[in-house]
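Researcher: Batch entry, complex prediction.
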Amino acid sequence: MKDWLIELKELALKEIKNIKSLEELEIWRIKYLGRKSELIKFSERLKNFPPEERKNLGMIFNDVKEELEKIYQSKREELLKEKVNFDFYHPGKAFNLPSLPLIQSNLRRIIDIFRDLGFYLIDSNYLVTEYENFDSLNMPPYHPARDMWDTIWLKKPNGWLLRTHTSAFQVPFLLKYRPPIRGIVPGKVFRFEATDARHDFEFYQIEGISVSENSNFSHLRFIFLEFFKRYFEKDVKVRFRPSYFPFTEPSIEVDLSCIFCNQKGCQVCKFSGWLEVAGAGMIHPHVLKCAKIDENKFQGYAFGTGLERLIMLKYEINDIRLLHTPDLRSNEI
Amino acid sequence: MKFRLEDLKNYLEGKIDVEKILNDLNLKAFETSYENGIFDIDILYNRFSDSASLLGIAKEISILTGLKFKEPKFKLKESKRKIDKEVKVKVISQKTPFYFGRVILNVKNSISPNWLKEFLNFYGLNSINLLVDLSNFVMFEYGAPLHIFDLDKVKDKEIIVREAKKGEKFISLEGNEYELQGGEIVIADKEKILALAGIKGSKLAEVDLNTKNIFIEAAVFDPVSIYQTSRKLNVKTEASLRFERKVNPHITLKALDRISYLIQKHAGGEILKGKFAFGKLERKKEIKIELSHLNKFLGTNLKASQVKNLLKKLKLDFKQKGDIFTIYPPLERNDLNSKEDIYEEILRMYGVNNVKENFEPLLHPAYLDENLRFNFKLREVLKEFGYSEIFNYSLFSEKEKKIFIEILEENSEPIEILNPISENYKFFEFTLLSGLFKGLSLNQKNFRDLKIYRLERVSFLKENKPIERYSLALACLQKEKDLALKEIKTCLEFLKKKLRLKFESESFKEKNYSFLSLGADIYFDNEKIGIIGILNHKVKNFYDIDWEVGLMELNLEKIKKMSLDYEKFVFWGNYPEVIRDLSFIVDKKVNTEEILETLKQIKLKNLKSYKLLDIYFIQEDKKSYTFRFIFQSDERTLKDEEVEGLLGKIKNLLENKFKVEFR
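Model: Structure tokens for the complex:
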């Protein structure tokens, strides 16, 4: 009987070698290890043998069974493994990702930064009156400073225009939200201007205003430092230069340390190490008066910056028109 | 404005360090660059009157760098003859606050020496003759524009400063004739206009090489008037530019003596005694500042001694009483009138960059504007649904206006631009669709299954008032018309769900828009909230779009009001739902709204909800509906017979009302 067991084993081992599918393997398993297989049937017959022989055969039987089970398991695993045929360099499925214009995604980022710095977010109109855009900002009619803002006028109503700057909302903003108040007014502005790589007749500005008993000049530097640091995700320096705006006194121009060359000098900063990025100042008493704010009690600062300029610097874009196209290739995912 | 270093040197003493000058000017006064002996200085508008000149810049450099300022020294030799014997001047114009003049007799005019020709050439003017060139030289030296008249060409030697009458003619030095509209300041005699004040002289009183006797005008004209006249007639000159930015009368007076001196020096002649002077000059300006307020305003910690030093450096006269400073600004500075103006002076002298940054404590919690917050949410939601936003301009052309004019609300009209940049941007958009379609057209080759939107302000005139509100326009591209419509309808349903729009009734009223093949107005609770439809062939061609365009535009003002931020939690129930689909055929004339209205009336216990699954058109005159009904009890599992019974009631109702045929 011992030889029979060995032969059975040899046969089973020989057969399993040629097996190529799980189905065949299952047939093999039923044949050699199934409840009705000859091997299992043999185990039932084992008790009929005399004790010594039974012991000996029992051991051999166990060895054979164990070996077949083991080879069955390893064959099964082998077959299972072979079923997966995949190269991990194979690309995934094609997909279209919805996207936002860079202007929108960056505006969102900037608004979040200012909110974290304690600014209200204020919405404002594109169509404004001459008073809002100019007079209330200390630019009476025929003031040559108005020439800094070439204006697109409406045919009617008379005296209405497309705002040339977000500053047009300073007085309406202060009339609506009384001090102490700190807010930003982002949005589209319009200029009667020819289009080229750096100019367009529509673009975005972000205006910031703070009016309280103590809003002062020293706060401006903090805001700019913190804002630029967070927006450009870089350690930056800020430089102020005296300037003039009719609606701020004192007025300053704001320079950012060149983010391309770290002030080593490059084409972008024209080897000056600085990039002009914003204008700011302490709000002119005329503006406070127009907003019916007691200028002896309250004071404040205001600043304005061009959104496209910031995006162009951050993303290294050299033509503003790439931000002003409906082309989805200029969007951010 | 450009200045030659060699010219500036005439008014400065000490060792010139260009690097230092450049740095100080930039950080303490004006944006400046330097190349090949030439400074290019961006003189700020409010400093134009005192700084747009060689003396002005030299003085500024002297204050900033400590170089010594050297004012031109000269002594005027006047004759004994008095000016009022030779010339009469009448100032009638209200727009002329100051008018000064001198008379020089028997000058000898000539062509200018080379140095003067070169000087003027550099500063952008042509050389005319010695007298005219000297007056321009002084304009650049002092910053005050001057004008010289040939006195012998002035009728009765009487000069009248008045305002023009409508229709009067003015002949410029070049011989151009201008018709005046009235109100312009002119210098005239009894017969003719001699000069367009502050802008240009006339040929009729022109100084030429034969000129012997002259009247020199040094005036201050109303900036607004000069600005208006210069724009109206489209004449801009170096003088008009300066008058527009306010000329300082104190500087003007000095310049008058300077030109008289220079003319006598270079062309001889007799300067008559005295000068004509109209207008009352300010004697003294006085501004009080308090140290504590200065520090509060700037966020600084300056001490009285520091402020004292800074004022000294600025060469401002002042008196100090403890922490209170009374400042007497130079009368030549038009820009120093309030304490803020003085703060600016102190600040720039102290160094704008020496003020340490400070975090301003929170003034209030930060809020987002409701509209903008809603817009941000919409953008997120639409992104989730696979829609991309595109940028486009807010202005469009007459043609685009015409295509979409039917979208305008009643009693409304488009907003037209008075001075459009080009024909393409003549109207402010009252619909976002046109800009959206331009986006479809541009992107169709690069992207498949386009789904794009615009979220922007639209505007129009309603009862002559400009109205502005946010609008949302969406469009998708599909090969087949019905797919395009289904896609855009899906988006509406998605928005209803994601924005949790709450309303009682919804209806689609088909309307024949001339730009659509099929379209409808969308009503929520009987209020029009937008339009939906599919673009017709003609308009598709106009935008050069190949596939079918499903589109929708929504009034966000209304949508926002219906949108909830959250809804109460609804438990799905302990017992199983039983779902039954019901399909039936009905006459095409029956409209869906009626069927929906009828179903709405059904009040059956255990009918949890129902929805329309499908509508399709079968023969010419029939359509088929499939509704899904969901039954569920809060107390037990429903039995089949019960459900069949409920469904039977629904069937009866539909059968009786619409003669439907169940399938």
